[in-house]
Amino acid sequence: MKMTQKVLLGVLALLVSGVFAKPQVVPVSDLKPDQQQRRTALIIAQVLEGFHYTQPDIDDSLSSLAFERYLESLDPNRAFFTQKDLDGFERYREVFDDNLLNGRLKPPFEIFRQFRNKVEQRISYAKRLLDDFNFDFTRQETYLFDREDSAWEADEKALDELWRKRVKNDVLTRRLSDDGFKKEDLQKRYDGILRRVRQMNSGDVFQAFINAFTLSIEPHTTYMSPRLSENFDIGMRLSLQ
User: Fold this and answer.
1) DSSP string, 138-181
2) Which residue among 45, 136, 192, 227 has the highest number of C-beta atoms inside a 10 angstrom radius?
3) Which of 51, 66, 60, 57 is nearest to 98 (CA)?
4) pTM of this prediction?
């Protein structure tokens, strides 16, 4: 009984420390693959080709699917990348498979670093719009909130217009809410988007890259990073307890 209490107290301490620990911003210089991830990529490629029940071919066709899925996993609402950005990434479309097979992971990390930079630019722009507060609510406009099936905006100018409408919509929605509009509330919302991206580490990038392949093979095969796997195990043990 005493041992069980000690175990429970230890788990509670772990959870409490996780809740109150301040997440750290990951330096951009740390967003690069390490040797362990390179070795893991090689093993995963061998396991997928040799032991997965679908016996997939890790070739240019799968590479193209994984490339598109990876971009969509980073920017599912198409609010940060432009078509011009995607055109620049196109050189990676048919080398994602080589990256996995050879453990050379530079391209997905380069794409993510650019994604993080784009998020920083967009959030900065949104907060400037809030500060200027030059919205004409008598002008009839439409804003599509769910852009998953929309085309990527052509360039930065088009993306500026999209974000102008987004911020205007956020302001109007807050004005119509019971709590009313407070600029600080929206600033916190935008800061939250940026904070989550800045907290993503190399393990998160690697996991997104691997899952771009596994989910392109079939929707029930996923890769868990060591950190996610550990959290999953803790959750399972608590549910069993």
Assistant:
1) TS-----S--TTSPPPSSHHHHHHHHHHHHHHHHHHHHHSTT--
2) 45
3) 60
4) 0.82
